[in-house]
Amino acid sequence: MSRGTTASINLNHLRHNFSLVAQKADAASPGCGVIAIVKADAYGHGLEPVVKALPQEAAFGVATLSEARTIRRLRPQAKILLLEGFLDAAELQAARTLALDCVIHQPFQLQLLENSPQQVPLNLWLKVDTGMNRLGFPRSQWTDVLQRLKSIAPASNITVMTHFASADQADSEHSMKQLEALTDLECGLSMSAANSAAIFSFPETSFRWVRAGLALYGISPMADILGSELGLKPVMRLAANVIALKDIQAGEKVGYGGCWQAPVDSRIAVLGIGYGDGYPWHARNGTPVYINGLYYKVVGRVSMDMLAVEIGRDSAVGIGDEAVLWGEELPVEVVARHAETIPYVLPCGLTSRVQYVYTGQNDLELSAPPVHVDENIAASSTVRGRE
After folding, report:
1. Catalytic residue (choose from 177, 217, 256, 344)
2. What 3 state SS string does the chain have?
3. N or C terminus of the chain with fewer C-beta within 10 Å?
4. For residue range 44-55, what is the model confidence (pLDDT) as tens digits?
């Protein structure tokens, strides 16, 4: 028997989510394209399989040149957006060689462009800061920077973009102010503003391009809403096997520091997964786990290689049974809430000890019965607001 620590990646669900986002974006802004954000190894789902699985019309957003090189090898003609742009002259030359779209958010990047030998113009994305206060030019510089960019590249090669700070919160006043600031620019150029949250909460911000990150993987970008409620399907299912059973007496403590004490005689199932595999160490007592159609609770501290689940003396759970840590049966948003983190962190945090298995690598639709998620388990997730 193995530990069975496996991340199953359903590529049909990935394509479903991309199609759903594309439909929403086109309905809000006809002709709107979708940039699939695949940075951080496609949010922990595997960069190469994800890129290969997405349709030919997909564009891609990355954080590093190494990610861009991988995609260019797989998709020679794809639009690839370098989200933080080039950071020195060598990276600018690499971006030209790879024919990347580049975000310009700092004066030094503009100076590098102006000082570089004239070549075939890059597609340039002017990032304007409308209230995120992270990357982007302040409002006082927009007109000047835009004129300088137009001296470097034709208007057809320039897109204006911004990033929402609070699009995951319905009726966000801050998001509306950001939108007003962007539309006040009145530059007549292509625009991109909507991240995953805005695609669902502010469809009027779809413009020419939307940037789909978390939603692409079937995870809700909205506060207090599960992905399934938005029509999304989870792409990752993380599971591990039961490797031991232990009866405990009332009053006995479990795990490091004895942070959980049995109120009655009970039984513990030990699972072959821990923080060494990427399961969150800070998951609280009571974090749900799904085994054989029932929800059980994590008890005691998560260890490097294992965690304990209280199953009760009458449980039929046996050694070798599969436990689902998150997936269609147990939304990752719920686990993140119990671990007091955001759902982005969980798939991104898996380590090389986890075996990845990919399904749906052809175009045949997988069929499976719908999974019922207990309403008491499917509690609201934490606030988030990223790609």
Report:
1. 256
2. CCCCCEEEEEHHHHHHHHHHHHHHHHHHCCCCEEEEECHHHHHHCCHHHHHHHCCCCCEEEECCHHHHHHHHHHCCCCCEEECCCCCCHHHHHHHHHHCCEEEECCHHHHHHHHHCCCCCCCEEEEEECCCCCCCCECHHHHHHHHHHHHHHCCHHHEEEECCCCCCCCCCCHHHHHHHHHHHHCCCCCEEECCCHHHHHHCHHHCCCEEEECHHHHCCCCCCCCCHHHHCCCCCEEEEEEEEEEEEECCCCEECHHHCEECCCCEEEEEECCCCCCCCCCCCCCCCEEEECCEEEEEECCCCCCCEEEECCCCCCCCCCCEEEEECCCCCHHHHHHHCCCCCCHHHHCCCCCCEEEEECCCCCCCCCCCCCCCCCCCCCCCCCCCC
3. N
4. 999 999 999 999
